[in-house]
Amino acid sequence: MILEFIYGALVSIAVGALIGLEREHRREGDTILVGIRSFPLVALSAYIIAFLALDVEGMEILIVAGFLLFGGLALILIFIRQSLGYTGFTTTLALIVTYLVGVMVAYGYFIEAVIVGVATTTILISKERIHAFVKVLDEREIIGALQFITIAFILYPLTLDLQLEPPWTIFGRGEPLDLNMVLLIVVFVSSISFISFLVVRWQGPSRGLRFSGLLGGLVNSEATTASLCGLVRKRPAAINIAACGIVLANSTMFVRNLAICIFADPTFEVASLTILPLILLFGLGVLMGWKRYQDEGDSLELEMGSPFAIRPALTFGLLFFVISGAALFLQDQLGGEFIYFLALGGFVSSAAVVASVSALSLSGSIEPQVAAEIVLLACGISSLNKIIISRVMCPGLSRGALIRLVVTTVATFAAAALLFSLRILP
């Protein structure tokens, strides 16, 4: 009992000290009201209060009383800070979180308490970076992000216990068109896109078009290609760098699709067949795209729309349903050989094709080998689409990227053909 108490006390002190250390780390000249000593004492006090409340039956009210006590101290802290000319409530909120951490330790949630402490410290220490991320978003993009979060954290949980009656059972849990799985994949794909979009907006101008193109492929490789073509029409001097950007955007499309494949089919049956060719194709694209041109175009900013909004998310979800429904129809009504026509969806969204066939493989609707072949075909068609887009929008740019994109496209189709031959040959 004594050792358990000592261990809990030490954990509380350590987590409190971690948060307090960050609060103490101020610029010279600032007045420190609560810091490296105060926060550990708050966590230790909370631990002792909760420990006593748990040890004595009917004394859980002590935890509430302690919360009210430290909440009152937090209010006094706000008043003192404002009287000294300081603004903000971050330190006050951190103090309350520290109290709750001490309570968590007393209840035996040691790992969870450490996670909360580390997460709190990370948020506190990342003030400048968080503000920098916020500044790259305009009001429309923030509203779109809030709408998307509504889907992710309200609509998705509602589908966990969804009970459907015939003929809608096909959208139920574990079915070929599992609505819950669709929403989960939509959240995953859009999250990849949004994080990449933020990094491009934040670091793109300082890193150049090659960097923007490389990450742009994770957002939307077709949209990135179109944006680079539009940029060249305004700034012809950027043609060489833009061509590299298109090749790099196309190369990261392979990595994104591999991640989607693994997420949609956690059994790894489809990914195990596609991981080697997709990684090799990514490496080939990077080698051909990362050429060291030195011109003014490398400092230009790539314009892209935010993918983290209602419309892109719903569009992807709709494509997922259409492709999955078409796969089931082709498989059941026309025969398995027609299912390869699904790869044509790569002209619209290779990610939707990859997600659909991987999820169908997980449900047992199609064979993993066939799904892997369609994945590679969709990637090849997506590469071919970049050639068409650049050729139509900016012929001069297409000549710079044409040979490299053709090499990538041919290599992708060759990988699909090799996988197909390994299946049909004895």
Question: How does this model look, in words?
Answer:
With about 425 residues, this protein is mostly helical. It folds into 2 domains: about 1-125, no CATH class; about 135-425, no CATH class. It contains 15 helices and no strands. It has helices at about 1-25, 40-55, 60-85, 90-105, 110-125, 125-135, 140-160, 180-205, 210-235, 240-265, 270-290, 310-335, 345-365, 370-395, 395-425. Helix 1 packs parallel to helix 5 (about 110-125), helix 8 (about 180-205) runs antiparallel to helix 10 and helix 14 runs antiparallel to helix 15 (about 395-425). The longest helix has 30 residues, at about 395-425. The radius of gyration is 27 Å and the shape is globular. It starts with a helix and ends with a helix. The model is unreliable at about 295-300 (pLDDT under 50).
Throw out a few tags for this protein.
426 residues; single chain; 0% strand; mainly alpha; 15 helices; 2 domains; 76% helix
Secondary-structure blueprint:
Elements: H1 2-24, H2 38-55, H3 61-83, H4 90-106, H5 110-125, H6 127-135, H7 139-158, H8 179-207, H9 209-234, H10 239-264, H11 271-289, H12 310-334, H13 346-363, H14 368-393, H15 395-424
Helix pairs in contact: 1-2, 1-4, 1-5, 2-3, 2-4, 3-4, 4-5, 7-8, 8-9, 8-10, 8-12, 9-10, 9-14, 10-11, 10-13, 10-14, 10-15, 11-14, 11-15, 12-13, 13-14, 14-15
